[in-house]
Recover the amino acids of this structure.
């Protein structure tokens, strides 16, 4: 879906239409850091191969007694603290790695974070999940169903990645991020200005975790056709990001920050290069966390803000690609906010 028709479009002229504004940002990462050297002890790989092919030096792994929902709760609570709010009207949670098939995790997160009986549900769009959840939350606000929504993305890839598979074990990590969205004006910094979402189920097998019917026996692991995914990720994110840049009436050279799904430093560089944005706009924040799936964009946003690489009022494009296949982008001007980050 090309969703700009439902999102307000910003063209540098006075405009008092309702906007959906980013008001808080929180993350939670597991404390345990697994370095490339540790993986190279048991896999046929090397620190040098992983760094040069992916840009990743380490990834986090959730403690055995810590769940995806635990990470989600901490990130959600941190986003509320960052927004200086104790309540929201709805919660949307994106994950590829639910602790259980049923029920969804979002109601439990809402309950544990003290949000009461608000509507809460999960979305499943793999590494595009955060942007799909953000678009869904924006829809709830535009429809008048909610004035504020907590969007949370959390992953425990370490529970579905085969530790013996060097092509996935070196890439994926655990973590969670969340943002508070609230009703506001399209003129405010932080307003979401344009969306683009898409999917292509013809390539569903490129990123895959079989179900019981597909694989009745044996341990089921997550698999990825690395090279094909690499090429599709560049192609889809570039096209999607260009659509939102155009919808905003921006030109690529005026974009201050592109926060692409943090899958691989080479993918991030190639997308920025094809978009024609300034090289310093391509924010690469994956060195110490790897690919945290749906959580990668909010985790990267928090790192970039705290590192001074993402500044208020920067024209910002978020773009993601994941299994499904799915992809999506959103454009906004970055707001002034202080992320709240914790580790468990
Ligand atoms: N260490 C050493 N060699 C490895 C390796 C590792 N960790 N992982 C794969 N290789 C090998 C492959 O087996 C292959 O060997 P072969 O040529 O003998 O068959 C060789 O490296 C090249 O593999 P290829 O997949 O073509 O490499 P690449 O440059 O594309 O890098 C990825 C591999 C996985 C890093 C890369 O494809 C990638 O990042 N893909 C996208 C991953 C991603 O972002 N997924 C999430 C998107 S939602």
């Amino acid at each position: 879906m090309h969703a700009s028709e439902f999102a307000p479009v910003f063209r540098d002229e006075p405009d008092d239409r309702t906007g959906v504004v980013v008001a808080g940002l929180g993350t939670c990462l597991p404390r345990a850091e697994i370095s490339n050297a540790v993986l190279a002890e048991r896999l046929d790989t090397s620190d040098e191969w992983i760094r040069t092919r992916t840009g990743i030096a380490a990834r986090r792994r959730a403690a055995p007694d810590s769940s995806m929902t635990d990470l989600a709760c901490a990130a959600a609570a941190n986003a509320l603290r960052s927004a200086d709010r104790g309540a929201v009207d709805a919660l949307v949670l994106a994950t590829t790695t639910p602790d259980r098939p049923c029920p969804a995790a979002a109601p439990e997160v809402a309950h544990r974070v003290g949000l009461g009986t608000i509507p809460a549900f999960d979305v499943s769009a793999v590494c595009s999940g955060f942007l799909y959840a953000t678009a869904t939350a924006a829809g709830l606000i535009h429809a008048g169903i909610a004035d504020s929504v907590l969007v949370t993305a959390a992953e425990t890839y370490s529970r579905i990645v085969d530790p013996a598979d060097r092509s996935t074990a070196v890439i994926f990590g655990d973590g969670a991020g969340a943002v508070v969205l609230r009703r506001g004006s399209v003129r405010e910094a932080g307003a979401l200005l344009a969306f683009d979402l898409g999917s292509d189920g013809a390539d569903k097998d490129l990123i895959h975790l079989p179900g019981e019917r597909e694989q009745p026996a044996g341990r089921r692991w997550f698999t990825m056709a690395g090279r094909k995914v690499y090429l599709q990720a560049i192609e889809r994110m570039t096209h999607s990001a260009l659509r939102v840049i155009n919808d905003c009436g921006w030109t690529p050279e005026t974009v201050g920050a592109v926060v692409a799904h943090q899958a691989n430093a080479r993918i991030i560089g190639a997308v920025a290069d094809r978009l024609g944005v300034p090289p310093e706009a391509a924010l690469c924040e994956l060195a110490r966390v790897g690919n945290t799936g749906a959580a990668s964009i909010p985790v990267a946003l928090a790192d970039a803000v705290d590192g001074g690489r993402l500044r208020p009022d920067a024209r910002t494009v978020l773009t993601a690609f994941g299994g499904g296949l799915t992809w999506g982008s959103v454009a906004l001007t970055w707001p002034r906010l202080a992320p709240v980050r914790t580790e468990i």
Notes: The pocket of coenzyme A is lined by residues 45, 49-50, 53-54, 127, 166-167, 170-171, 207, 224, 226-227, 229-230, 233, 263-264, 291, 321-322 (CB under 6 Å). The chain has two domains: 9-185, 192-343. The CA atoms of residues 177 and 299 lie 5 Å apart.
